[in-house]
Amino acid sequence: xxxxxxxxxxxxxxxxxxxxxxxxxxxxxxxxxxxxxxxxxxxxxxxxxxxxxxxxxxxxxxxxxxxxxxxxxxxxxxxxxxxxxxxxxxxxxxxxxxxxxxxxxxxxxxxxxxxxxxxxxxxxxxxxxxxxxxxxxxxxxxxxxxxxxxxxxxxxxxxxxxxxxxxxxxxxxxxxxxxxxxxxxxxxxxxxxxxxxxxxxxxxxxxxxxxxxxxxxxxxxxxxxxxxxxxxxx
Length: 234
Fold this sequence. Notes:
Layout: E1 16-20, H1 27-34, E2 51-52, E3 55-56, H2 64-70, E4 71-74, H3 85-95, H4 102-112, H5 116-119, H6 132-144, E5 150-154, H7 162-175, E6 180-184, H8 188-194, E7 197-202, E8 206-212, H9 213-218, H10 223-229
Parallel strand pairs: 1-6, 1-7, 4-5, 5-6
Antiparallel strand pairs: 2-3, 7-8
């Protein structure tokens, strides 16, 4: 079964790009192509090119693990490790044997993830004791601690309450000042609020339209996109 068909787009640096569309249209599959997470799916087969800094990430000489150091990912459900808050953030740095100034870098990542003020006096506490929203911000801190270029987010707020969702949205907008953020969301209002560009995928893994978010929501080129956004189908 083909999950994506003829997808071609140029994602701008240091902006938020949202991917929207009905369930099963290939949004998350495309997201996972970007840092080769689909390599972990035994049946997955990929054709075409996906360029990052001018290099096809599917070239034979590209190490997927090294690639993911530059292209981090935050998943739909918070997935902190059963370790302390500190050890969660430090994990990637230790794996890479990059442990200089560890305390400062953990603090900086937590600050950038808007979590430091809430956990600074309990860094040895289990990450599993945090609330869902705090756990998701911790996962974002863990992703940015290794200083990636791109942050992929797959429905990062779908499991959170409205207050926690608002914090994540504010954080995403702040992160886009320094990182390229690509977010999959079912929440069209969220896409309209926080993204600069929006890609609309429809049934069959087809990228139907990709443009400035304001254009997509106010004056889309294709009737199918307007019908989806206005709730006529999907």
